[in-house]
Amino acid sequence: MSGGLFIGLMSGTSADGVDAVLIDSRCDATLLASRHRPMPPALREEVLAFRHAGANELHRQATLGVQLADEYAAAVSALLTEADVVADQVTAIGQHGQTLRHHPVGDTPYTVQIGDPNRLAELTGITVVADFRRRDIAAGGQGAPLVPAFHAAHLATPGVATAVVNIGGIANVTLVSADGAVSGWDTGPGNTLLDAWVSRHQGASFDDGGGWAATGATNRPLLENMLREPYFARALPKSTGPELFNLDWLHAHLAGDEPPADVQRTLLELTAETIAGAITPASPDVVRVCGGGALNTLLMERLTDRLRPAEITTTEAVGVDPCWVEAWAFAWLAERTLAGLPGNVPDVTGASGPRVLGGIYPGRG
């Protein structure tokens, strides 16, 4: 089964809300509608609490999964109303789910994304495709990043060496060579440390345009200390998450007397440095940026400075709003799953081969 209307749902590591898109995949894929539903503060706090081990986790996880499914269903309902589309017209929902833990290494690798797809299918009446990452891990992969397949299919120009950078909580890069070869990995922190630090010191959910960071100065010893993190030198394939890059990690690198604005500026430089360091050896002709980081003016300026002479733009240059790329990718992955087509790129994740990803949860009727 392929073609038709698909919904993509994404709630990222920041847990600030649910991104929902409605895609018409017939002929050239088209974005019909998009919606962001802010996460209720208490629910967000519970999601973020799972970055550290706590009491009664089994009950809390199960309860949180149901609550998230209710949020996803509300986002779907609002999206359909906005688009004047009824549920029966939608082929499927691709639901990323909320990542609570991502541990793809060791003898017992695992990843956990929640947001009960059974409940979502029941509430919406629409078939749900979910749990995309675990099959790749079962095949020996990292389970992430999964978006490079979509990046290569929709954001790269044939014959043009292209880098696609998704700057969400964690940043990842996709490199598509002129001959079409695809590679990619998580480069490290994108917005997750920036958001956490500005929240603690300014009470804001994010640093709008990098404005607060711009008032600070880069602390070179701090930056060099953070760049010694072993993850940055780890061999590919690799993926990471806020289990590693969180405020505890940051505080372990601080002397304690740094001006907060200087720390913010240095965190922005850390994001720019690790992204540029991943891309520069490939010498791409163009770099397309998406995710919330694409809206950070100062971060975009720093990436442009680091990546010259490549052409640096957001994905808007190829007709895809940078805010909706990840949600769109999971709508695309749902379509791949229903068509029996693989959704991973083994050269990216390290899986032993291409795999059809996710489980299918039929809608009512």
User: Whole-number average pLDDT?
Assistant: 95
Q: Low-confidence spans: pLDDT under 50, at least 5 residues? A: none
Write down the oligomeric state. Answer: single chain
How big a fraction of the residues is strand? Answer: 15-25%
What would you say the CATH architecture of the largest domain is? 2-Layer Sandwich
Would you give the CATH topology of the largest domain?
A: Nucleotidyltransferase, domain 5
> Number of DSSP helices?
13
Straight-line distance between termini = 17 Å
Class derived from helix and strand content: alpha/beta
Question: How many domains make up the coordinates?
Answer: 2
Number of strands: 13
Give your account of this protein's structure.
The chain has a six-stranded mixed beta sheet with strand order 3-2-1-4-7-13. The chain has a five-stranded mixed beta sheet with strand order 10-9-8-11-12, sandwiched between helices. It has helices at about 40-50, 55-85, 115-125, 135-140, 150-155, 190-200, 220-225, 230-235, 245-250, 260-280, 295-305, 325-340, 345-350, and strands at about 5-10, 15-25, 30-40, 90-95, 100-105, 110-115, 130, 160-165, 170-175, 180-190, 285-290, 310-315, 360. Helix 2 (about 55-85) runs parallel beside helix 3 (about 115-125), helix 6 (about 190-200) runs antiparallel to helix 10 (about 260-280) and helix 10 crosses helix 11 (about 295-305). With about 375 residues, the protein is α/β, with parallel strands linked by helices. The protein folds into two domains: about 5-145 and about 325-360, 2-Layer Sandwich (Nucleotidyltransferase, domain 5), CATH 3.30.420.40; about 155-320, Nucleotidyltransferase, domain 5, CATH 3.30.420.40. It is globular. The two termini are about 15 Å apart. About 35% of the residues lie in helices and about 20% in strands. The protein has 13 helices and 13 strands.
